[in-house]
């Protein structure tokens, strides 16, 4: 337990020293929040109502999908993980600890957004704080799971970036961050349900702000996010490899697509 | 035998159907430096990675103090310290943090004293990315020794080091051996293997060609001993000796080659004495490990 807590503390502070992570965890989400917040409120005054959930979801999406995989891939490429293995660092710590520290960094950013948005953009605060934080937490679990899984299966940083962008861009554009999902054309609206951002936005707006959202049963959406996150961590643990040539991988990396199962079930049944 | 700390029998490893280790057999005694000498691609790193459980062999048996690395990795980490050839630490970790980090995973508390042993005390607040190659190597060795394991495995520990750092690291390795640590040293550097190893195995193409002390290995070859003689007078000029092969003079020395060193020296001494001449210099150069290594590997290639 002492080793776990020292590892957690070390990971948190080395994260603060890592310029790449600082960019993904703090600068990009907060910069985007300031810029897009100002722009969108001018273009569409109704955006103000969803400013907090949409910017919190954006911050978590950026930090987990764009920030989390790269250090894991780099550590494997450079032989850091091999070093960890011979010193007895458990694989589970290598996957879970960066996810926890990412969660801590992103919780701080979410807090900054939640506190400042009413002051800067006159954005309404949540009516139900519990559901707002539960929704954020469920998305954090889903996002960190996906980030870790990308880091585990990507052969190198280029592949990691490609996989991350394949998820990040459509999740941001179609996931209800800019335009509510119920305003998207029918087929696109259905496709958007493959992305975790959709469930997070719908759950937060419905349960946190009490807005009438169409189509998705909000508590079910949170369940999809939790299930997706847990499945992603389980697959990450199963497919984990200590070294670059994947000599220790148990199964082919394409099994990672199984992570879509909860989202597909959600798209069909919710 | 109780003195064997490591026993390897019939170790086999394949990568994608290609045999990389072809039935290795060797044993390492307690308290010795055992060199694993071979060219790049001989299978040295693969052997070491099998020893510490980083790779699963296709066949054979490995026992480190009776422990099977594949079956009991948790016990193995207490018995073995390894400095890997390809390994690193996070770029932004500080030296002292790295020591504490691994100390905790070895069940020890914060203890920076290990840094002083390899003169890294001054660098304790430096980030890993700002260390020189030599300092990274020393840190890697410090981390491998943190839990004072009975067996230390060093994979090409002096690769990329300058002469001073290399000599300093050799001193540290000998000191560790003298304090009772068993060391397996993988290297492709003949001089390093010859000067550091108590015993060594020559590994080529996934097979061990020979095992023994450097002296044993060089003495079993058919290599010729070189005799260089310089005299005041001209007693050896044009002189022929039976059984001695003569090569052209260099820097005033006459150069002979022989496989019968005692007889050859006697002949040369007598010839100089008989002519009333005097020696300026007399040198005897035995075949080196490098020459013996080339002899063995050429035979293997043929």
Explained architecture:
The complex is a heterodimer of chains A (270) and B (302). By secondary structure, chain A is mainly α. Helices cover 74% and strands 0% of the residues of chain A. Chain A has one domain. Chain A contains twelve helices and no strands. Chain A has helices at residues 2-17, 19-43, 51-67, 69-78, 80-86, 91-121, 129-153, 157-174, 186-191, 196-208, 218-239, 261-269. Chain B folds into two domains: 4-213, Rossmann fold; 225-286, Alpha-Beta Plaits, CATH 3.30.70. Chain B contains ten helices and 13 strands. Chain B is α/β, with parallel strands linked by helices. The A-B interface holds A 2-3, 6-7, 10, 14, 17-18, 71, 75, 78-80, 82-83, 85-89, 242-243, 247-248 and B 52, 54-56, 73-74, 77, 80, 82, 84, 86-93, 97, 100-102, 104-107, 109, 127, 143.
Can you summarize the main beta sheet of chain B?
6 strands, mixed
Q: Which residues of chain B form runs of ≥5 with pLDDT under 50?
A: none
Domain tally of chain A: 1
Strand percentage of chain A: under 5%
List the quaternary state of the chains: heterodimer
The number of helical elements of chain A comes to 12
**Rg of chain A:** 18 Å
Could you name the ranges of chain A where pLDDT drops below 50 across 5 or more consecutive residues?
none
At a glance:
The complex is a heterodimer of chains A (270) and B (302). Chain A has 270 residues and is an all-alpha fold. Helix content of chain A is 74%, strand content 0%.
Task: Give a topology summary.
The complex is a heterodimer of chains A (270) and B (302).
Chain A: H1 2-17, H2 19-43, H3 51-67, H4 69-78, H5 80-86, H6 91-121, H7 129-153, H8 157-174, H9 186-191, H10 196-208, H11 218-239, H12 261-269
Chain B: E1 4-15, E2 18-29, E3 33-37, H1 44-51, E4 59-64, H2 73-79, E5 80-83, H3 95-105, H4 113-117, H5 133-145, E6 151-155, H6 163-178, E7 182-187, H7 190-196, E8 199-204, E9 207-212, H8 214-219, E10 225-231, E11 245-250, E12 253-258, H9 261-274, E13 279-285, H10 289-301
